[in-house]
Specification:
Number of strands: 0
Number of domains: 1
Strand content: under 5%
Distance between the termini: 25 Å
Radius of gyration: 25 Å
Largest sheet: none
Number of helices: 3
Helix content: over 70%
Keywords: Membrane, Transmembrane, Transmembrane helix
């Protein structure tokens, strides 16, 4: 591979490599993060509104424990699904960006024709 080809490949790869990765990561990560924040807020907000009289103390403890379990499970579900999803999207995006950058460089060199 000559110097001109190497420079063109490097230029195309550097232009196309980061934008798609960032956007796909945000696309995968933001909805799960919103779920995480909403669940945590709901749990703490509910705890602030629970009355502390002796008559309802046991019921409130049970409700709090159930709500806490739901929030923990939901947040664990977020961590178990969304983070690998974001990593998968990022990896897919990097591969796609590199492939398209190489093809664009090859087209500029006249090695292939893009439809």
């Amino acid at each position: 591979m000559d110097e001109r080809t190497r420079k063109l490949y490097r230029c195309e790869i550097s232009k196309g490599g980061s934008t798609g990765t960032l956007s796909m990561s945000i696309f995968a990560f933001v909805p799960g993060m919103l779920l995480f924040v909403c669940n945590t807020y709901m749990y703490w907000n509910h705890n602030a509104q629970v009355p502390h009289s002796m008559a309802t103390r046991w019921t409130n403890i049970k409700v709090r424990n159930q709500l806490f379990r739901m929030v923990v499970l939901s947040n664990m579900l977020f961590l178990a699904t969304n983070i690998p999803l974001a990593l998968f999207y990022s990896a897919f995006s990097v591969i796609f960006d590199l492939t398209s950058a190489v093809n664009l460089a090859r087209a500029k060199l006249g090695q292939i024709t893009l439809a």
